[in-house]
Write a structure and sequence with these properties.
heterodimer, A: 329 residues, alpha/beta, 7-stranded mixed β-sheet, 12 helices, 36% helix, globular, B: alpha/beta, 5-stranded parallel β-sheet
């Protein structure tokens, strides 16, 4: 039976805690309510209070503790209750965690994952509990930002993230926690020998390259299936790691299609989508023939899900955008 | 504090003072000593802490704590390289005195923005707890940093989890130019944290024996699993905050003159005489400290500056990802 992303993250955490006796977990209410997302029930009992560390709602202490344990050579998976709250510890993330390697000439790996729910589930959560923060973090050298889009990728990405040697901000999309798996016949099967964090081409096509991650990746895959019925062949890239972005993977696809659509749930200005487009214009070996971004506008998420839905890029928006980008049929 | 340990502390104080003296000489020659903050007047505190630390302990230092860093095993060459911010420093010229790093000696680095060291202290302590080591985390900070909220979060968590952290508050009277009583509602640092369930102690931080006695007791208790403690050391900063600070704008010269007459090296010297050390031996110690620091300076002053290649290759662990 297939596992949901929520269950897969639990599986990944068990894998980490079992494989690495020097791995610890830090977070709020990890035991009493399974953490932010009911993912960590039972860990305290199984691994003990020396390894499963509950903190108060004190993000400076929590995120700072994660860094301290990582520089003490532990493998750390800390949970922040919501991506929006990461900024309570903004200095720890931007001034300490991101810069530690550089300004201390730190030669050892830093095994530090900050995992947190992120993105919109369209559930009356409003402007401070729905943000896609990857665009904000994109301007911070030294960190990695990972946004898995499927249950299987989430487990593997988490396990890889704790060993990659750099601090990782691991964004778990709220809308994907319990989403049923997509089964689309024409998709490529992931090669388990390749690191999931490097991203991959999920579906091969020749008309347009669509780059998307997190919940937008799921929308893109649904759109591609619809578009196939309409005679459009879409190639889909899931970067998984959105910072640093594997631009060469995208450019490899663009060599074939020369047409690019980026779907980004974050606000438009300074978005990851913007960077992907610019880098394709600057660096892709073949000139782009057409490109477009679908993003959230530069506004706040309304509480009312009916309003919010109207602002989020949708499957229909992707279908229309791909059709507008494709060569005449 | 026995005679030998007192002499060890005095040697550290002399080295710290000699470091200040060469930094002043460099400044007179217009040689940059980036981010140098003088330690004069605070040496008893730094040395008193230093002689209590074991190689197993972690130190989260403050940037004037030359004596503590030396006690923890940082070499004079490394210290001068970090003060000159060149390739002989512990971060090869990329972090300097604000980011002295010697992880194998328990110095994991230092936060450059005030406040995050308190959380970091918790994480270091969790490593000690996980590996069941007999060690403590000594976390040093001044009045400026002690007003960041992270301190109170960390003290709460340290108390909840009985973590082996000794918070050492360096009250030198000023956060840059603002007096402590302008910034702390209780007028001092320890009064504000008196409600935490841990020993909260306030001492004369210019009495090297008092500092060493208290730090020894509190770190021993932490190592033994008795949980955290908070020690306020009241001291006097004799130097300006840093080279570009004109302290005549906010400090009365008379106060400084009085402070110089009671400065910690004089007090430690008198104490050493009273416990039987010979005056000529102490003169010799001072000469020796000046020689050692001078030799360290000579050995590193012409070292190459930081390398641009490391700016790129030290962004990510694999040396990639930063792009050019």
């Amino acid at each position: 039976m297939s596992r949901t992303m929520r269950q897969s993250i639990t599986d990944g955490l068990h894998e980490i805690m079992t494989a690495h006796p020097d791995a610890i977990m830090i977070g709020e209410a990890l035991d009493t309510r399974g953490g932010a997302s009911q993912i960590t029930y039972g860990f305290l009992e199984k691994y003990g209070a020396r390894r499963v560390i509950e903190t108060p709602i004190s993000e400076n202490a929590l995120v700072g503790m994660a860094l301290g344990a990582a520089v003490a050579d532990l493998k750390v998976v800390a949970e922040v209750y919501s991506a929006d709250f990461l900024f309570c510890a903004g200095s720890e993330v931007v001034n300490d965690i991101a810069k530690w390697r550089y300004q201390h000439h730190w030669e050892k790996p830093l095994h530090l994952v900050l995992r947190m729910p992120s993105g919109s589930a369209g559930s009356w959560s409003g402007p401070e509990h729905t943000q896609s923060i990857e665009g904000l973090l994109n301007n911070v050298p030294g960190i990695r930002v990972v946004v898995p889009s499927s249950a299987q990728d989430a487990r593997r990405a988490l396990v890889e993230a704790v060993s990659i040697g750099d601090p990782v901000i691991f964004l778990e999309h709220r809308a994907l926690y319990d989403a049923p798996p997509l089964s689309i016949a024409s998709e490529l099967v992931a090669d388990e020998r390749e690191p999931v964090l490097s991203g991959r081409i999920v579906r091969e096509g020749k008309d347009v390259t669509v780059v998307a991650w997190g919940a937008m990746q799921r929308a893109a895959r649904e759109a591609a299936d619809v578009l196939e019925g309409d005679g459009f062949s879409v190639e889909i890239v899931d970067p998984v790691t959105v910072k640093p972005m594997n631009h060469s993977l995208i450019h490899q696809s663009l060599a074939k299609t020369r047409r690019l659509l980026v779907v980004d749930e974050g606000p438009r200005t300074g978005s990851i989508a913007a960077e992907i487009v610019v880098r394709a214009l600057e660096d892709a070996p073949h000139p782009l023939e057409a490109f477009k971004r679908l993003t959230f506008p530069d506004v706040h998420h309304p509480f009312d899900p009916r309003l919010e839905r109207s602002l989020l890029p949708s499957t229909d928006d992707i279908v229309a955008a791909v059709k507008s980008l494709a060569r005449d049929h | 504090v026995d005679r030998d340990r007192l002499l060890d502390a005095y040697r550290l104080m002399l080295l710290s003072r000699a470091v200040d003296d060469v930094c002043d000489e460099l400044a007179e020659k217009s040689i940059a000593v980036p981010n140098y903050h003088g330690a004069r007047g605070q040496e008893a505190m730094y040395a008193g802490v230093g002689v209590c630390l074991t190689p197993e302990d972690y130190l989260l230092y403050n940037y004037r704590a030359f004596a503590t860093l030396l006690a923890k095993g940082v070499t004079l060459d490394e210290l001068m390289g970090d003060l000159l911010m060149n390739s002989r420093g512990t971060s090869l010229g990329h972090g300097g005195i604000m980011h002295v790093t010697a992880p194998e000696r328990g110095i994991v680095g230092r936060n450059g923005v005030f406040g995050s060291k308190f959380g970091i202290a918790l994480g270091l302590a969790q490593e000690i707890v996980l590996n069941q080591r007999r060690a403590a985390v000594v976390c040093m900070f001044g009045e400026a940093e002690g007003n960041r909220g992270g301190l109170y979060e960390a003290m709460n968590v340290a108390a909840l989890r009985k973590l082996p952290v000794v918070f050492i508050a360096e009250n030198n009277g000023y956060a840059v130019a603002a007096t402590t009583d302008l910034l702390y509602s209780t007028g001092d640092m320890s009064g504000q944290v008196a409600g935490f369930p841990m020993p909260v102690v306030k001492i004369d931080g210019n009495d090297v024996e008092a500092v060493a006695d208290q730090v020894a007791a509190l770190t021993d208790a932490a190592r033994a699993g008795n949980g955290p403690a908070y020690l306020e050391c009241v001291t006097v900063r004799l130097d300006p905050h840093h080279a570009h600070d004109d302290q005549s704008k906010y400090r009365d010269a008379g106060i400084l003159e009085a402070a110089w007459s009671q400065e910690p090296l004089v007090r430690a010297h008198d104490r050493l005489l009273s416990v039987g050390h010979a005056a000529e031996d102490l003169v010799h110690e001072k000469v020796r400290a000046t020689e050692l620091v001078g030799a360290a300076l000579s050995s590193v002053i012409d070292a190459p500056p930081a390398s641009i290649d490391l700016v790129y290759s030290s962004t990510y662990f694999d040396g990639q990802g930063a792009g050019r």
